[in-house]
Design goal:
Layout (H helix, E strand, L loop, with lengths): L2 E7 L9 H8 L3 E2 L2 E8 L5 H13 L3 E7 L6 E4 L1 E3 L26 E3 L4 H10 L4 E4 L6 H15 L5 E7 L18 H17 L13
Parallel strand pairs: 1-3, 1-4, 4-9, 5-8
Antiparallel strand pairs: 2-3, 5-9, 6-7
Helix pairs in contact: 1-5, 2-4, 3-5
């Protein structure tokens, strides 16, 4: 039996809900005999990483998948890389707004996901749900957490594989926004994340598949 920790942020940026948090509330406690533990994390600089590390110590997972809202995206975006920079366009939920600051001074410039990102994408798309490989997790708390996870798993918890997925707005979040902004139903996102978790458990080594971008 393997164990995965799945995290989701609380609402931020004036939103009343965060689809990442709504999704983790609905995840089952196990998939195909493997254990799933969920954790709500604050959209707060530094505190988000601290909360995750405390749960790592308690739960000792084999994998960590963090999920975040990416307003404007139209599919489930599996992140490839986290960069060592905080450059917050808006304040976090505690009023922090670091600009051009390293997340960890002794960390690498970037860390790649250690989850099977191509296998995850294929699993989701094979089930008729839009999914892509993303090469930028932004510079807000999502990237902050993604980088923090990979820093921790490089420096202290080397047996854990970790990565990040961005999901679109829910339909109710875009009613009062520009009607060109994408969204996805809660049911579809939930199915996509469950498929992602299955792919993580099923693929010790990632598959080779086209998922790059021209520019």
């Amino acid at each position: 039996m393997k164990k995965i920790l799945v995290t989701g942020f609380d609402p931020f940026g004036g939103e009343k809900i965060n689809p990442a948090l709504e999704i983790i509330k609905l995840l089952p406690s196990s998939i195909e005999g493997n254990e799933i533990k969920v954790l709500e994390i604050p959209t707060v600089w530094r505190e988000s990483i601290r909360v995750i590390e405390e749960e790592i110590k308690r739960f000792n997972p084999d994998f960590i998948l963090s999920i975040g809202q990416a307003g404007g995206r139209t599919d489930i975006s599996i992140e490839r890389v986290a960069i060592n920079i905080d450059d917050f366009r808006i304040k976090d939920n505690a009023g922090n707004q670091p600009v051009d600051e390293k997340i960890f001074e002794d960390g690498e410039n970037a860390y790649f996901s250690t989850l099977p990102i191509k296998a995850i994408q294929k699993k989701i798309k094979d089930n008729k749900i839009p999914a892509s490989i993303s090469n930028s997790a932004g510079t807000f708390v999502c990237n902050h957490v993604f980088y923090g996870l990979r820093y921790l798993t490089e420096m202290k918890y080397k047996n854990i594989k970790a990565g990040f997925i961005h999901i679109p707005y829910l339909p109710e979040q875009v009613i009062d926004k520009d009607n060109s902004i994408g969204s996805m139903s809660l049911e579809t996102i939930l199915k996509g994340i469950e498929l992602a978790i299955k792919a993580i458990f099923e693929n010790e080594i990632d598959i080779k598949a086209i998922g790059g971008e021209i520019c």
